[in-house]
Structures are given as C-alpha cells and as structure tokens.
C-alpha cells in the first residue's frame, strides 16, 4: 500500500505535465517541418521548378517532361520543386488513384529527374482528396514524392519555405461555384491562416541561410490571366519583405514572368 501511495503524486505530476503540454500546443503555433537537402561538394545547388502539370501526359506535358529530363541532365540538378496544381482537374481521389502514375511516375521518367520532388498544393489539388496527396503512401509508391502543406527545406546556402496559399483566397470559400474544396485540416480558417503566417515569419527570422526563397502556388504579383492575389499581397508579402526574402516562386498563371520590385 505504501508503495502505491508513493506512486500517486508522480502520476499527478505527470498528468499536470501532459496538460501543460496540451495547453501550450493549443495556444502556440508549431514549428514548420524541415527537410535537409545536401548541396553539391562545392556548396552549389541546381533545381528545376514546374507547376500546373498533372495532365496524364496531354497538353504537351510529356514533351515538357522530355525537355526537363535533358536540361536536368545538363545542369545535374539536385532536386525539383512543384508549385502545385499537381493533378488536374480535381486533384486525386485516393493515394491509389491512377492519376499519380499517369501524371507523375510514368511521365517524369528521365534519369536526371529521379531526385526529390518538393511539392505544394494548388487550388485544383484542393478540389480532390487533400489527404491523399499528403499521404506517406505516395512516397512508398514513388520515393521522389514529398508533399506537405507548408514546410522548410534547408540546403545550406539557401532555405526554401513552402507555403500553402490556397486557403488564403477568399473566392474559393465565398464563391466556390460548382467546385467542392477539401478544407479538412484548414478550418477554422482564420486560426489556420494566422498560425501559418506566424510559423512562416518565425522560420524566416530564424533562417541563417544566405538566400531565402519562398514557394507557393498562387501569384503575389502577376501580369498574367489570374493577376495579383490581393490576399497574399496584404497578408504574406509584408512578411516576405520584412524578412528580406530574395525570391518568391509561384505557379497558377500559366506563363513565364520575372517580376522585380523597385522598392528594394
Ligand atoms: C502542344 O504544343 C503544340 C506546339 O506548341 C501546340 O500547337 C498544341 O496546341 C499543344 N497541344 C495542346 C493540347 O496544348
């Protein structure tokens, strides 16, 4: 009996400890997940960026993939970035959706493209099963696939910050038209966006890398079809500017633009 009584306070302390952890997990934001991408022995890195691509090879996707294979070999690339809209028109329905093979594994077949692919989600991906694209099953099916909502890749001279931009866009919530978006894990929306912005800000502040690159699906500024994304201009851009981000890379508008700022 004595020994049992001795155990109780320890149990109590343990439960208080757990409670404190749970409470702090509720109040504070989490650190963004991180991946380490080793650079070349000379410290350099090269990578390709592609966005808005999953077409089962059509819309010239296969031809683009062929050219990516060639340039990827010439540059001896270390990794690839996808800026989202990975699978048209409506993402994938499960981790076993044949779109994954038809639009990814069986399309980007060149040896030079057998490197890590760091993906974010686009608005078309949110029209499917988001958890399917985030599922570790996809990495079992094709070990190149790395897809989280928001995360950081540390590559010594550069830190790359991947930001989930779709939940910022009011129109997808206010006027979804005939589209159904998979907002699981995103609601309540304001809480999700506020903690994401804080997480990105903190990660940028902590970064010691020479270069800071941010990747998202949506435009901040664009002269293309969709134009600027005002929600990102208002909410994300000030954080990128305050942290002296060198480059923001996006997809969404299907054209090549190089936009620089006269402010800095
Ligand atoms: C593929 O590219 C060719 C040449 O640029 C173009 O004429 C054709 O319309 C493209 N096909 C599709 C389906 O976009």
From TrEMBL:
Protein name, per record: acid phosphatase
Domain Calcineurin-like phosphoesterase intervals: 46-255
Annotated compartments: Secreted
Family from the record: Belongs to the metallophosphoesterase superfamily. Purple acid phosphatase family.
Principal EC category: hydrolase
InterPro entries cross-referenced by the UniProt entry: Acid_PPase, Calcineurin-like_PHP, Metallophosphoesterase_PAP
Catalyzed chemical reaction(s): a phosphate monoester + H2O = an alcohol + phosphate
A GO CC term assigned to this protein in UniProt: extracellular region
Short name of one Pfam family: Metallophos
Keywords assigned by UniProt, alphabetized: Glycoprotein, Hydrolase, Iron, Metal-binding, Secreted, Signal, Zinc
Coiled coil residues, start to end: none
Alphabetized PANTHER family for the sequence: PURPLE ACID PHOSPHATASE 8, TARTRATE-RESISTANT ACID PHOSPHATASE TYPE 5
């Amino acid at each position: 009996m004595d020994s049992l009584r001795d155990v109780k306070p320890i149990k109590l302390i343990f439960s208080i400890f757990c409670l404190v952890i749970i409470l702090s997990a509720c109040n504070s934001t989490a650190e963004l997940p991180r991946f380490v991408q080793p650079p070349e022995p000379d410290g350099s890195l090269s990578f390709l960026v592609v966005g808005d691509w999953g077409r089962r090879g059509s819309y010239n996707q296969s031809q683009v993939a062929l050219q990516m294979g060639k340039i990827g070999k010439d540059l001896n690339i270390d990794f690839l970035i996808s800026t989202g809209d990975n699978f048209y028109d409506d993402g994938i329905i499960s981790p076993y959706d044949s779109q994954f093979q038809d639009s990814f594994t069986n399309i980007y077949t060149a040896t030079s493209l057998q490197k890590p692919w760091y993906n974010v989600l686009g608005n078309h991906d949110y029209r499917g099963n988001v958890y399917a694209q985030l599922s570790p099953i996809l990495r079992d099916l094709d070990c190149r696939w790395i897809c989280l909502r928001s995360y950081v890749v540390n590559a010594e001279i550069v830190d790359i910050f991947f930001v989930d931009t779709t939940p910022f866009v009011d129109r997808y919530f206010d006027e979804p038209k005939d589209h159904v978006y998979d907002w699981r894990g995103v609601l309540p929306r304001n809480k999700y966006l506020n903690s994401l912005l804080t997480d990105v800000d903190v990660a940028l502040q902590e970064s010691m890398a020479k270069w800071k690159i941010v990747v998202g699906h949506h435009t901040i500024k664009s002269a293309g079809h969709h134009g600027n994304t005002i929600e990102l201009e208002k909410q994300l851009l000030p954080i990128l500017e305050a942290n002296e981000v060198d480059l923001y890379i996006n997809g969404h508008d299907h054209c090549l633009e190089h936009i620089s700022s006269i402010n800095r």
